[in-house]
Amino acid sequence: MSLLKNSFCRSQRKNQILTHQEQPHTTQEAKTKKSFHIPFFNNTSKTAPAKDSTLQASSHRKSSVNMRRQNIVHRTDCRRNTIWSDTVEGELVANLSPRELNRQEVLFEIIKTESEYVRDLRLVEELFINPIKEAEKKHRKQIVPENLNKVFNSISYFLFIHEVINSCLSERQESQFPLVRSISDILLPYVWVFRSYAPYLIHYEDALRELDECIRKKDKLGKLVRKQQKQTQCRNMPLTTYLLKPFQRLLKYPLLITNLLKCTDKDSFDFNKTVSLKSKLDEVLSNVEEQKRSHDNMERLRELETRIHGLGSFRLAINNRQLLREVPACQNLSELKKQPSFRKSLTVTSAPMSSSKRHSVRNLYALECNDIVLLAERTGITKEGQPLYKLVSRPPVVDDEPVMVEKPEDSDIYFE
Asked: Per the record, where are the segments of Polar residues compositional bias (predicted)?
């Protein structure tokens, strides 16, 4: 999950900047943040001081409950200020073991955050996707860019599936209140749903760039998004924050299921199902991450292919090929670093032909993939600051197997 976490961190930092720029904090909001309430560390009892042994025992029991509440693993959304132990009788909490208390808190968090996730997805569809579709019908043309449109389609699909999951979890919580015994049997059949998050992750970053561009240009989509973001239902958060929700949910599921497994006894009837749930979830998310990695690698190969002159009919971007690095071909020659004059005079020439040309080693780069290495001369840079290359080594033959180049001298390059 490291790749997803890194992408999430980049998106979150960018989203925080955008939110800060578009939604300045008021004085009242600052005061609200300062008076942040955490129920674990506050005794809400309003009873008078105990005067007899019965009240003293009751007070001692409540104190013990509060102490145990401080020790449970607090992984709920504190902004909602709701945990499981706040929704049931204190006597029930006092009679539970610490392990079971933790387990009920985790189960409560899974169900509660699933409901909040569905609420946020529904907000995106009702407040943004549906009005945008109506605007497209009105203007009889598509106003949503390609990648953003794919992200919107994914969100509509997520909403459809997670509404079913949320409904099942809510029914289980109501039928087994106050102690939920199991939810693994509900989640297991829906693990496959997370495979559908791969297209969302693939198009997510490009969709954000397209959305920022539309808002900057103030086109039809940008104006509509700005207008809808001012609605009270948005809770002073931009659309980019809500587009981040599937990312956050995908990263949170493994943590929640891991916590649930830690709090489940091995001799419990639900232990094996929880183990199976965690195993299948890890497998699916690894597959999603691999799809994301493969897509990013293919995009890098395609982008590099456009910056190399002289490839001819050879295609660099093919399946199972991985771009490893672009590095100077002679970066490890200590003589070049110690003797600048020698470095300037050192040149290479292509295979002995009538049209052979000499190239400076200073501009010679090795473009290394897992199955091939190309030698190219750096000739300039693009507007984005990426280097432009001219192929020096012989292009691989398209009809044959890719040419493996282990060292510079294997590519018909001769050093003088």
From this structure: 14-29, 41-67
Which residues are CB-neighbours of 187 under 8 A, at least 6 positions away? Answer: 165, 257, 277
Identify the domain containing residue 333 by its residue range: 310-415
Residue 64 in tokens = 């013990």
**At residue 125, what are phi and psi to the nearest 5 degrees?**
-70, -45
- Residue 29 inside a domain? The answer is no
**pLDDT tens, residue by residue, 245-258:** 998 999 899 999 99
- Written as one letter, the residue type at 348 is V
**Phi (first) and psi of residue 326, to 5 degrees:** -115, 115
Interhelix angle 146-175/98-124, nearest 10 degrees: 140
* pLDDT, average across residues 102-114: 94
Are both 107 and 252 inside the same structural domain?
A: yes
pTM: 0.70
> Rounded to whole angstroms, how far apart are CA atoms 277 and 296?
29
Q: Give a yes or no: residue 36 inside a domain.
A: no
**Phi, psi of 390, rounded to the nearest 5 degrees:** -125, 125
